[in-house]
Amino acid sequence: MKSREVQVFVRIRPTANFARHLIECLPDGQTVNIYHRKNSKKLQDSRKRQPSSWSFQLEGILQDVSQEEFYTRVCRRVVLGALDGYNGTVMCFGQTGAGKTYTMTGSTESYKQRGVIPRALQEVFQEVEKRTEHAFNVHLSYLEIYNETLVDLLSSLRGSSHQSPHSMVVMEEPGRGVLIRGLSLHPVHSEEEALNLLFEGEMNRIIGSHALNRNSSRSHCIFTVHVECRSRTLSDAKYVTSKLNLVDLAGSERLGKTGSEGQMMKEAVYINRSLSFLEQAILALADHRRDHVPFRQSKLTHALKDSLGGNCNTVLVANIYSEAAQIEETLSTLRFACRMKCVRTDPAVNERVDLAAQIKKLEKDVQMLKEELSLCNTLAKRPSITYESLSEAQLAEIHSQVQRYLAGSLENISIVNIRQVHAVFAQFKLAVQEQEQKVKAQLRQTYNLVKKDQSANTAAIKEWDIRSSTEDVEAGSTGVPKKNAPRPSSTKAKTKKLSEKQNQSKRRGEGSPVSRKHLESASKSKLHSVQTPEREHESQEPDTESQDTQEPPASEPFPPDSPPTKEQAFEVFKVGQGSKINLILKDNKAVLLERRSLLRQLSEEVNTAKREIDCTTATLQQHRELRGGQGQYLVMENEPPLQEAEITLLMQLRALKAVYRQRYEVLRDIKAEVNYCEHLVDQCRVRLLTEFESWYKKSFLVHEQELDITMEESPREEEDAEKGLPDEPSSESFYNARYRTLKRRNSRALVFTPVQRNSSGQRRLPPILPVT
Ligand code: ADP
Ligand code: MG
Q: Of 521, 445, 480, 596, nearest to 754 (Cα)?
């Protein structure tokens, strides 16, 4: 259904004194004209004496219509809509005595004069009988709102929990609209049962008005038929629900006219307030520019929220008196009716899904489809296929198939069904992940040399990986060194390469978090004096490449009968299996040498600056002393005055200190890099030896006893920087011990801080003297 206006009807209460001169119903049955001259104090004003007229055009003006006709013309559509799943509301509005209760409930004594509610109940159950393909559940509730208090008119009935009025709350639930928590809902299965409840509620309303001194015309009553409809034919989880609200509003007469006092006054205030809130809500609803409608201002508007602005078929009945004395109230009621006409609602079927039923239905569907499939398989002569979840044994079989397939021993994995395909893919994914882990572990092993506590040293591992891979690339690009390749320090070409490396390393160092870390811990930016590190360390770095210049032999270089010495084997290893790590080691060493030379150069610069500072400071001191003592006697004719010279010196001193600081900063960076490079070189060297050891064992040693002494038999790579690579196998213990020490140290902290390295003595830079 499309968005539609609220339908507004006028019902005129029959009377012997119909004010024909004031009320005119036009033959179109939709227009009523009111001619009314307001009581004006300025009667002399000729214009005021003229009767004013108003014309109201509504859905229908019902005069002298029977209860039956009224129901058929006004309410039937709404009631039937409720059975189809649309919410519906019929609401009577008007002054006390205008016929609201007569319209809604009607006479409880006369069947013919029964009102909308009994007729609606009758219609509902007649339809329930007719619509055999649907199963209906009907519940009733009867709510009274009296002085902003919610009263359950059916709470006296058996089975309903006796709620205190305060425990009832108007609530909104997403997807379900407004509901009254605490209001009793009564299942009914027949018209009679339903009417019993209606009368019970009416009785309670009357009792309340006597015993509790309530005036029934001052309360709002909402009789609600709750309908739930499910299809009997379709095993559908969907069902529809609806609420049919039949509302008898309190008298709309204005306060001034009733002359109320005390309790009545209080009631009148409440009623007027709730009706004026109703009017405000309607005005807001009618004004489409407004996005907020004040439904929560009163219990009535809140409870009717769905009916006024929601997905509801809404009908307003404006009950009017047709007597002259009531003409102002009539006018006011018709004005309200006209405003209500502008309100639009969006009726829509309330579809719900029964989750439990949905699951059952889906299970049934799955079962049916499985049967269908197995039928197809039988026809296609593939009877062994099942569609159940894979068992553990089946999964294990798939795992083994995938492993065999990856290993090459199984040529094909034949497709059985979708579940099996999924499982095969899952196994492939697993295999890839495992492989990745293995490769990563191997890479770490290769470049880090020793196993580390991963979580503690993740950052350091990354740093190491990045450097290694960069240098790997560099090593690859330079290729395997040729025999008698010139030493780095002896040729121009090598010098050029070194200087390139220097730049690269510097760039790396700048971005390197490790270097930064070193810098931070190394110095607290105090000015210090430095001295050049000892020369022997940088130029006499152990030289693994000095003898590794042969191409790897094309075939087995040693006769099988006579195993080579370790020295021979080591040379072969360096150009063969160990060439990668050896190249990295060489590169690292080259970088280290270059950094050291740079460090020395920078140290000299810093010390020069320091000497200049000292010198200037001393001169300045002299000047001050002279000026403090016999300063003026020493002033020569052509010399600037003493104070001026002092200023110049101070300026110089400041400039020198700035230079010093700047150079010192750079120096600190380079020192950190040197430390780091030393660490890399150590790592690579030990790695090379360890790998060589295991390779040597695998290749040449057969006896288990010999295998056991791996660590003790690694060839000496270096003793110190001055010594060449490995001289004699007896140095193995030394290197093994060193390897273990490194391993222990690395496991404690992979990141080598300058402080730690400096404490080793030989590579430490001399102490730095503070400059004030
Ligand atoms: P309200 O509920 O608006 O205060 P009621 O429904 O109680 O008014 O009506 C007041 C009196 O008028 C009742 O006695 C009722 O029977 C009578 N009355 C109202 N409307 C009609 C009508 N259309 N036909 C016959 N009697 C009516
Ligand atoms: Mg009434």
A: 521
